[in-house]
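ARCHIVE CARD
CATEGORY: sequence design from structure
SOURCE FIELD: tokenized fold
FIELD CONTENT:
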């Protein structure tokens, strides 16, 4: 049977005896209020049975709502006292370990329920992370920007992953091996940008922010096409292609290019307007 207070511990006033005084110390005890609580104690251990000091132990009520949390002592022990009678869930957390599935536990009136929480080592405990924010040149976060992570290996940039920024312009790459990394951010309407390389080793969480400048040619178009021989259908390389702007019925050449080996030509950064292309093949006689 557990020991409980039937009356609340009460003290008398202090009295000083210097000789043969007769001191009276009467006490009036107040009946202890009925206790509808119990305790939860336990130990947090590794898989091999050794204890984990300073682990965070968290208690949830029957609906999964957080109730309280404490840390284990040097012996891996913890105690939740005066917990209202009822059903709860309990688990633990500690860097380098995986959080166990919550254990159901019942609190009994005036009793202590003992629980052992076993934690497995996180196989990625010593991995690294790169995180950061992509902003515009005005300092505003850039939502839905594409962020590529590259690892520098023997002077070669190797693509590791691709993510998108959230509405706050944030991104995260986790579980990275030791090495040197940088990010490249892109979004339509902006010029792409790269971060400064960061060296990661032994559980480093490194910030890598970058700023995207607005593309001055963002509101421009392109004109492209293929030049082929009408008879054979074969592409014509090195054909001369001229781009004309049309204004009030007047055509003016604004750019000239040549087709590539596949007969393709491309004009870029073209402002709004009306255009026509003309192609020919010329040779010196």
């Amino acid at each position: 049977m557990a020991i409980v207070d039937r009356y609340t511990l009460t003290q008398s006033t202090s009295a000083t005896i210097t000789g043969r005084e007769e001191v009276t110390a009467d006490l009036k005890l107040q009946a202890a209020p009925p206790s509808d609580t119990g305790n939860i104690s336990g130990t947090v251990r590794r898989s091999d049975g050794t204890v984990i000091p300073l682990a965070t132990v968290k208690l949830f009520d029957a609906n999964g709502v957080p109730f309280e949390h404490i840390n284990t002592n040097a012996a891996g022990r913890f105690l939740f006292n005066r917990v209202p009678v009822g059903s709860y869930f309990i688990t633990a957390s500690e860097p380098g370990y995986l959080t166990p599935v919550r254990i159901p536990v019942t609190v009994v009136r005036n009793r202590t329920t003992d629980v052992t929480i076993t934690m497995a080592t996180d196989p990625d405990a010593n991995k690294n992370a790169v995180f950061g924010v992509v902003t515009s040149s005005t300092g505003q976060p850039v939502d839905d920007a594409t962020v590529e992570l590259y690892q520098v290996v023997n002077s070669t940039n190797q693509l590791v992953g691709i993510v998108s920024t959230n509405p706050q312009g944030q991104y995260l790459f986790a579980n990275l091996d030791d090495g040197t990394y940088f990010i490249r951010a892109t979004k339509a309407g902006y010029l792409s940008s790269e971060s400064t390389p960061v060296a990661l080793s032994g559980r480093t969480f490194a910030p890598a922010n970058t700023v995207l400048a607005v593309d001055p040619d963002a509101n421009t178009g392109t004109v492209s096409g293929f030049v082929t021989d009408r008879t054979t259908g074969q592409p014509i390389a090195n054909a001369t292609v001229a781009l004309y702007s049309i204004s009030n019925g007047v055509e003016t050449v604004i750019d000239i290019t040549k087709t590539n080996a596949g007969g393709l030509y491309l004009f870029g950064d073209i402002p709004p307007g009306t255009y026509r292309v003309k192609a020919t093949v010329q040779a010196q006689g």
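CARD ANNOTATION: The mean pLDDT is 92. Residues 128-214 form a domain with the Immunoglobulin-like fold (CATH 2.60.40.1120).
SHELF: design records, drawer C
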